[in-house]
Amino acid sequence: MIDYILRIHEFLIKNVVQIITLTTNSMKFPALDLIDRCLLDLLQADARQSLDRLAEAVSLSAPAVQRRIKRLRESGVIVRDAVEIQPAAVGLPMTFIVTVELEHERADQVDKFRRKVANEALVQQCYYVTGDSDFVIIALAQSMDDFEAMTRRLFFDDANIRRFRTAVVMGKPLRSLAVPANYVADPPQRGSAAGS
What we know:
- By secondary structure, the chain is an alpha+beta fold.
- It has six helices and six strands.
- The strands form two sheets. Strands 4-5-3-6 form a four-stranded antiparallel β-sheet, with helices on one face. The chain has a two-stranded antiparallel sheet with strand order 1-2.
- A hairpin with a 2-residue loop joins strand 1 and strand 2.
- Helix 3 packs across helix 4 (62-74).
């Protein structure tokens, strides 16, 4: 928190505005300055923080912070506010990483598989990827039997699935969908030795 305050003060004192135009899939996002990026990091850490607390952290008034957050939501930078739940607390203690290869990678077949996966409650994430596999899926389950039932629904009953491979997550995984908003604004020094 102190680091954010110092960076904001340094930003304001130098009166330097860092603007980066982000383009993803031909969608234009608004230019984000250092204050926007700090707000994004603070909100990802705890979206329930009061406007007063956020305002204090970035040295702005609460109404100014509220306007910025509204702009970030309306422009699609902030997609949604969500609650993170411990899967074991709701009876889903097992996590699986599944790679899937399709027999035919035509657009209609890819879209059909995406729709089927999107309708499976146990799937947390699904990525269409390059490389040896076509999809990488992160899924939860109560037990191996529960997972097997899901594989039957998604894979065994689909003639377009060439193969799938499963890895069972062991131990406590690092779980986060946080995006380091300040990474591009202030990238880490690459290839430099610590302390030099």
